[in-house]
Structure formats: C-alpha cells, structure tokens
Fold each of these.
Amino acid sequence: MVDGVYYYRPWTMDNGLPISDSTLPTKDQEYNPFVKIAQASNFQGSNPYLCGIMSKHGRILVAMSGGVDSSVAAVMLHEQGYEVIGLTMKTWDYASSGGSSKETGCCSLDSINDARALAVGYGFPHYILDIRSEFGDFVIDNFVDEYLAGRTPNPCVLCNTHIKWEALLKRADKLDCEFIATGHYANIRSQDNGRYVISKGKDENKDQSYVLWGVSQKNLSRTKFPLGSFSKPEIRQMAMDMGQVELAGKSESYEICFVPDNDYRAFLRHKVEDLEARVAGGNFVLTDGTIVGKHQGYPFYTIGQRKGLGIALGHPMFVTNINPDTNTVVLGTADELERKEAWVKNLNLIKYENIFEPMEAVTKIRYKDAGTQSTIVQMGEHMKVDFHHTVSGIAPGQSAVFYEGNDLLGGGFLI
C-alpha cells in the first residue's frame, strides 16, 4: 500500500472501459506488481496480495455479470484457493437495441461496475471484454431471422453454445487458465466412459440445465458450476454474510438481455426496416382455412399465444401455426394445440454418445416446462420424441431437452 492505495497486478483497467484481445496479457508476460486497483477504504478482501501467491487449485476464469450468482461463485472459488480472474462480457448495446428506459441487466454500466468492484475488493483481477460484434453477428441476427421464418428463437441457448463458452475459453487460454466457471445453477461431473454430464441444480426453481444442452464435451471438460449444490436463498445469504447487502438484494431478470423493456415486437421493428409495412394485413385463419380476420404481421405472434390477438371469436383461441410464406396465422382451440409427437434437430448429446435404441426420458419443451414422460430415439441427425400423453404448444425453434432422472441427456431445436 502506498499513500492509501493498494497496488496489484496489471489485469484491471483503471478506466473501466471494455478491452480487446490485444490488451489481454499473455501467459508468457510477466506481472507488474505496481498497478493501482483500489483505495484502501474500499478494500474488502482478506489480503490484497493473496493472488500473488501460488494457488492450490490453479487459475480459473469466472464469468461475472455483476449479479449475485456470478459474484458469489467468484468469491466461493477464490476462498477455495483458486487463482480467480473475473471477466465481464459486454455483449450488446442498449441504445442500438431501441431501448426507451434506463439501461439495466448484465450489460449495464452499473452491473459492470458492480462486478469490477467486487473483484477489486477481494483482490483478484477483473476484465471487461467487448464481444458485441461476435454476439450481434450470431445471437441477435439469428433471433431476428428465426422470427422472420415463423419460429420462436432460443437466444440463451445459442449464446451459451456459440458465444459465451467460446469467448471464455479463448480468453482463458490467453490467460493460462485451466478452467472457466459461471454462476449457472447446475452440476457437472465426469463419467467412467469419459463423458462430462450436466445434471440439475439443487434448486428446482432455479435449475438452468435446460439452457446448457448445447455446450460441447470439449468445453464441459474445462467448466465448473460452483452454485449447483446450493439454492438461491442460500446464495443470497452468502452474499449477506460477505457484507454485500445491496448485491444480496438484487432483483432477478427473466428478460432476454438484449431486448429492451422485454418487448420483442418493438425490437424487431427497430431491427428490420419497414417490417410492419411488409407484413401487416395478413389473414387469421382457422384450421379449415376459414378467414376470420386480419393480423398485424406473422412475426409478432408465437405458437400457443392467446392474449393480444386483437380478435374475438366468442371463445378462447390460440395460435396453432404460423406460415411466413403466406403471412398467415392459424388459430385453433386448446385441443388443437396438443401433440403427442415431436421431431428435434441440431442435436447435442451429453450423457451418451448416441441414443440409437429407444429409451425412456423426460422431455422439456420450454424452460419452465415441468417435463413430460416420453420415448426418444435418434434417427439419423434427428431425435424422434413420442410423448406418453399430449403436450401443448410445441413451438418450432424452441429447445427440446431430454433428461434421465436429474441427468441431462442432451437436446436440440424443435422442428
């Protein structure tokens, strides 16, 4: 400490701005022990020089959003003896997404600063990494394209599969980190057959294994989920015990991170020029083809939707099908939404290398779905799912995820 200021490794940027790969130190570079990171009055860790000592578990890169889950995960690993490096990824820009209210969520300046302050307080390095281009080119573009194709996208799965894990491991390699960690509520273990298996987290209300089905075996082999054996209330209590009262009380966000105000229709209008002019005025039809009204444009509807249709037929009606080629939205009764079979594409299997023989599984067709007993069998590049009783609202583009007990068998996208 010099003049009331702690000095430490050069892995925290004083200006708090996003950094690029070119500014990350490589594993061959020496550490400069004299870089200002925090005023002594703000320091909350047990030893500002602790990370300078060889850790007993190795170096780990932790994704930190600024929320309570990833923050507690980082501190937990730090206390367990890992040499923690925090990384906050700037994935999107609120203004360019058409937001009208104050920026909130994992990419807000407040969240980034919260993650940074916690890392500084506990004496471990922290980075802010700008991956807006990577994220936008894949996740956001896919989100728009799927709605324009009449499907309901699953952006969190795509982000985990193609962006978040790849971005983390790329930077982990540059920083000589053996592992990465996230604040997901899930568990992971290795099996005798050499495969890494994800299983449900302890907290059934917070279990996030559904959005992790796309992560590859290679990436899972270097992944840790510190929160898997804890409930959300226990994590909040840990934050309180750390003295992080404001962090412990942070509200949860269930919105898509890049969709301002949770209004995907406004987001599509903002992203696609003249969208309304191109799609407004299509027909609402019944399953027999009878035209019963006009709609605002097929991308603004999803399978299973009942509210906000803007049409009254004397009894509840639901969106049962969407045809983008004819700009037609099909309406039907609740019974007409029900199915006993589904086909799934873009498979990624977790527990077993393949499922060529029929097996019993519980299949979830949406995140908050309780799951349905089913028989699944792999047929070429697809999975055939026979539900043991009817399910309602199978939406093409959403994920179908298969479980054997608490273990994640794998998943794919509904056709």
Amino acid sequence: MKGKDLLSIGDLAPDDVWRIINNAVEMKQQGISSVLAGQTLALLFEKPSLRTRVSFDVAMHQLGGHTIYLSQSEVGLGSRESVSDVARTLSRYVNIIAARTFSHATVESLAEHATVPVINALSDREHPCQALADLLTIYEKKAKLKGLTLAFIGDGNNVANSLLLASGLVGMDFRIASPKGYEVSDEVAGLGRNLAQGSKILRVEQPQAAAESADVVYTDIWTSMGQEAEAKKRRKDFAGYQVNAELLSLAAKDAILMHPLPAHHDEEIAPGLIDSPQSVVFDQAENRLHVQKAILEGLYRKSDRAEDWCNKGVALGNLNRLEEALDCLEEALLLKPDYAEAWYNKGVALEKLGQWKQALAAYERARELEKGKP
C-alpha cells in the first residue's frame, strides 16, 4: 500500500490485492486468532449499515481486538466537532479507524490528520472493502481472476468505481452499462486504464452489450443513501437496466450473479433471482468479514513495522552508522509518512552528517506533526 491508509483501490498495487486475497483465504480457514489482541478499532459512521458494521465488529473480535461504534448523532463529524479534531483525538485512543462517510473528502481529511491507519468503509466515491470481498468471491468460484470479464449493470456509483479499479489490478476485463448521465466518470475510467494489468475497460449504454459472454454479472441499487429525493427519477431513468433471467442468459453458461446488498427486488434485480443457482450474493456478504480481517491485520502490522524501522534507525544512529540509520528511517516514513518520531530522528541523523538544510526541514516536519496532536 502507498501509505498507512486504505482509502481507495488506487492505493493498492497488484501484489497488495493478491496479498489481501490470499491472507483472507487463510484467515477464513483459520477462524479465530489473537493477532490484534488488545487493539481497538473505531467504527466512525455517518451512514447506517448492516454488513459493514457487523463484519468489521466480528472481524476485530475474531482477531482478538474489540471495536467502538460511533454514530453521527454521537460525534457530529464536521458539525459538532471538526474532522481534524476527531481524527487527532481518536488517534490517542484507538489503533485503527474505519470511517463510513457521505463525502470522500471527509475520509481523506480523517486520514490526513490521524496518526493511525484509516480505512474507507464507504464514501460517495469508493467502497474498496466491498470490491476486495468481491474479488475474493470471484476467485473462490472461478479459481482465477485474470482473463475473466465482469459486467456491471447500473449506476456508475462508488461500488462500480472500486470494482473498475480492482478489476484492472488483477487483469480482469470490466464492462459497465449505464444510462446517459449515470456513467462512471472519465477520471475513474482513466485511472483504471492506468492501473490495468493488460485488461480492458468498456463503458456502454446497452446492458446486453455488457452482459454478452460475461463471467460475472453484477448489479447494485439505483438509489443510494443520500439520493432518496432522486428515487422516482432514477427508477424512470434505469428502466430497462434490471438484471433478470433474460439478461443473465446472455452471459457465459457458468456465469455468477453478484449484488453487494441491500437489494431492491423488482428494481435493479428481478424477484427471486438472488436465490437462483447462479447467485453468490450471500457468499459475497460473508466474504466482507474475511477480507476485512486481512485488511485490518495488514494495516496494523504495517504500522507496527514502521515503529520497528524507526527503532532500528535510532539504534544505528547511536552507533554513528548514520547512512544505515537514514535508510531505516526512510523505510519507517514510507510505511507511515506522518510518523513524527521518525522525522525527528531523521533530522538528528542528517544534522550529524552536516546536512543542515535537510535536517532543519525534517525537524520542522516533526514539529508540525506534534502540533497536530491534541
């Protein structure tokens, strides 16, 4: 991962995705462990949730830790208290924050000001945990990801954005059929093409064109939370975009049907189709638990490794092995860019090497980070 947080699928490299999938497979078989014993996860939710809340809560419990649930009515994120103050305060109490927000800017601000890892548990731009759980589910059913085709039928929403990016990273073709005005943005499509490992991204208007010979047919609700005022218009605009038996018949004979839930039966999906033999919808839901265990463990260990690198750098600095010390401190800052102690000790090593300008800059960064703490 590029930093201490998971805010977007774009934060991941292909190796990161496969590490999460493989660790999730292992954790699914293993069940309960104590890898996060004594650690606390804050669930900071502006939006209500079933799967996201329960799967994170159970995941943390099965890893030996525990959670604290904080609703918008309790915290008043951005109204009663600023996002930056909430981030800095929680960083003194908990080890990881999972935030479910209306605006992606909110989760970005939390990550900017928190000194602990922040997970995007859903925003208006992306839903990375859902997409990673979907990849795990497809991998379990198909025994591969590269070379498959996923057809998404419906709104170019947060789930579609994350799936587009995730598909590219694992070499899976991604097609999306949406009405005019509801397409995945050019920005997201462009990022997906930059990340793609030899796979293709196709945006079309006709559902049939997307579903043709697809290995996975995927749909989601037409009206998300916060869009209720648009529900009537959206039902009209999405007429003809329902996934039903006729559309599913255009896909590959062994195609699977996916939906992240909640579902609006007889809108985006025909009644009874979720219970059809091709449906893997509830396997999807279960896999949120296992993927999030892998994410939690990975982010915590990454933060823990940053402290190890910093401590090693300090020890080498005390031995006047200054170049080696700097290498270790740079490793710590790659893992945890806002690690004040590592910045300070980098300044110490640079000062000893006579690199005064760089040392001053490192000290200044350490002071900025320390001032940000409550």
Amino acid sequence: MLPEETDAVFEELQLDRRLQLGLDALALPAPTEVQQLAVPAALGGSDLRISAETGSGKTLAYLIPLAQRCLGEEIPPEAGTLALVLVPTRELARQVLKQARTLLASTPLRAEAITGGADFKYQKALLRRNPEVLVATPGRLLEHCEKGSADLASLQMLVLDEADRMLDMGFRDDVLQITGHCPPQRQVLMLSATLHHRGLREVSRALLHSPVTIAVGEVRQPHSGISHQLLLADHQAHKDQLLLALLQQGGYRRALVFGNRRATAARLAGLLRRHHLRCDCLHGELTTEERKQVMTRFRDGQVDILCASDVAARGLDVKEIDLVVNYDMPRSGDDYLHRTGRTGRAGEHGTAISLVAAPEWNLMISIERYLKLSFERRSLPGLKAKYSGPKHQKSSGKAVGSRKKSSEKGGKARSRAAAPRKPPAKRRPSSPPAASEDGFAPLTRKRSGD
C-alpha cells in the first residue's frame, strides 16, 4: 500500500490534521490488522483488551487514539498528564517514547518517559512541566505518585502495554496502586501477547469496564515469518562450540543470543569477544546509561551480536535482526514467543535456533505442544551431538521417567522397615569424668556412704 492509500485509510477516521502529519513522517507502508481493528474501537471510547503477535504494530494502535483524544480535549494550563502508558521495561519505554515523539512532532503535545535507573530529581523537574503523554515503568512512577511529584488527576487514557509481562515481573500491586491516583472515568487499553495469562482476567475485572476484546492471529501462534530450528547438544562445552560455529559462519546482519540468567549472558559475551566476534551484553544489572550505550552500539552496527537475558525479550525493536539463538531453552512457550519475536518483523524472514541438551528435552517438547509448532532438527558438520533424544519416550514425546529405580528404592526401604529390629544393647555405666587440671571439672553427685 502506498502512503497515499495509507492516508486514505486513516482519513476515514477524521484524525486531527497535525496527527496526520505525524503519521506521514512515520511513512507507514500500510495500517496493520491490529491498527485497523483497534484504532476505531478506541476512538469510540471503549475499554479494550488487545492481543496480537509481536511486530504487529500494537504501539501505534494505541498511540493514535491516545493522541487524538488528547488533541480533542480542552486542556487547562494547570492540567497534569492526560495519557499514561505503563510498560514493564526501560527498553520498551524508550521504544514507545521515540515513536510517540515522532507521531506528536507537529502537535503541541509533549511526551516524556519516567523509568527506574534515572535521576529522581531530574524526573521531578520533567513532571513539573506537566507532559501530556507519559511513558513509565510502574515501580518508579509509583514512587513519584507517593511523593506527590506525578499528577494523574486529569488522566483521560491509561494504557497497559505488555500487561502479561508486567504481571510476570511482579508489578501487579504497583499497577493497581497507580490506578488509585487516576480518575475513575479514564479509558483503559490493555495489550498483551496473550490474553490467557492467569493474572490478566483479575486485573481486567478490576480496571476495565465492559471491555471489547480484539485478538489478531491465533492464540499462541508463532510468528509466521520465522523458521524454528533445533540443535541438540551433549553438555555446556558442546553448546559453546555450537554457538561459536553458528555465529562464525555468518549469514546474518544482526543476531541475538538469549540465556536464562544474567551470568550466562555475560559469560557468552566474553566467550564471543575472545573469538574476535563483535559482541555486547544486555541484562538487568546495567544502569540506564549503560543500556543506552549498548543499544546504540547495536543499532549503529558497531556490534553485530547481542547476548541478553530475558530483560531484552520485550520492547527490543531493532531492524535487521535475522537470527535469534536460544542458548538456554526459555522457561515457557510465551517466553519463547517474545524472544523469537525480535526477528521476522515487518514482513521480513528470520531464523530462531534453540540449543537443547538432555535436561531441556521435556521443556522443548512442552513448548512445541503449547505453540503447536514443530522444530526443524538440524546439525552442524563435525559437531553433531551424541545425544539424539531420550531412549524411551511417552506418546507426548517427553522422556519416560525412571519409575523402576524409584520403585526399587521404595522396595528396599520397605524391606528394611519390615526387618526385625535387634534389641538395644545394654548401656554400660559411664565412668566419672576425670578432673581437669584447670580447676573447672564438672561437679559429680556425692554417693551415699562417702
């Protein structure tokens, strides 16, 4: 679709002309499905529950109606924030802020971000300017609310982006407390990769009123533009060899390597640097400034490979990532979706390769069944694993547990329990303790007749 055709699609919504100029600056190739469904519904004033795959244009799906509503309001000079976007991570906050500022460039609306890791006093100064649009992580914003530096009394729209991730990170209570500082008549949009998270229903009942549900794509559907592959590994050293071989053979523009722990991400980054690969590391222990520097180097092409913990799985929007490697198998199918969703975006093709050792076999099978996908098995020349899967498998494909051994142990335990016990040996009278030369010998009872 040409830009003129994109203009025609949004023209039907009668958006503010200044907002239309922002859309032109974004040079959208075409409105995505979630944008076509969510924008009119949000402009109609309904609370929304939105589910769509990563890279589907969800951010603009809420930023467009958010900006239109703010521009249509009579804003008194002393009014505080009109629209609040809560996100789980600093990386996602920066992505949303960047897109919001581009969209609002021709309007009088200002957008700012409030996240952890930044100077609190500087953020108070930003909030005193009453930005109309605020992007924030829950923990830091709650601090400002409790100290009176954030004014949400005039809030018109509340957006919970990556709501499932916020619940996973323990922000449920923070989110509910923040909404206590907002007026009850605000409009609420809740976005998530899946609406089947166990905690979303409770939050939805607490915050949304008669919400409209918009689900784009099948539930738990892997991204259609990604090839999902699997490499079996014998042990950690073998995984290291496989990772090095994959990255040294090239064929990618940018690559992401995920580990389940910060220490794993840091170790892998060091390993790759020692083999002269241009690599950096991103995890939760970095300061905000350090994270910015890492992401700038990655975007600018100073490094080709980023080793990351799951902190980067959401909100990381970098073009030309065409390879994602799961050094550790993610802990759930939803985490797998978020990791691999960093590639294959905007109509491009991507590859996701998971390194699986024997202890991860059952987890891999669970993710296959949960997402209804089939990993393409492959091997690398000279590095094929001796491990080819469990010898005995259930109908589900999972490894058969060692019940026989446990039953044998149980039988031995029962036989030991059934064996007759020997009568306890008679205790011999203990001899009185010898006197200590230091004068602190224990006292002994005087025997009768002494």
